[in-house]
Amino acid sequence: MKQTLIDGIQEVSIVSGLIRMDLFSYTAGARDEQNKPPREVVERLVVSPEGFLQMYNTLDKLVRQMEGKGLLQRRQPADETLLHSEAEQDSPPPVQRAQGSANFA
Known about the structure:
This protein is of the alpha+beta class. It has two domains: 1-47, no CATH class; 49-99, no CATH class. Helices cover 23% and strands 30% of the residues. The protein is built from two helices and five strands. The strands form two sheets. Strands 1-2-3 form a three-stranded antiparallel beta sheet. The longest helix is centred in the middle third of the chain and has 20 residues, at 49-68. The radius of gyration is 16 Å and the shape is extended. Residues 70-105 are annotated as: Disordered.
């Protein structure tokens, strides 16, 4: 089985009824003007709407389990009216690691 390490999802689109997710990894060495490592798209995941919903439900269940174990904590968005602004595109997701967890440095 092939395994690909990713750091996140760069872009999501729907083309011909299929959900296409460009998965990225940060590249080593170079930094951009904000001192962040550049992203490199390493894989494209293409799934049907049904497969996407199944994947979403599975990941949501995992997030709730991690919250229950104290590995993650939900954050409240500052302004819920700003759903897809450019300023939020590079912000972290609405879940963060719990402080003081021995599992994360």
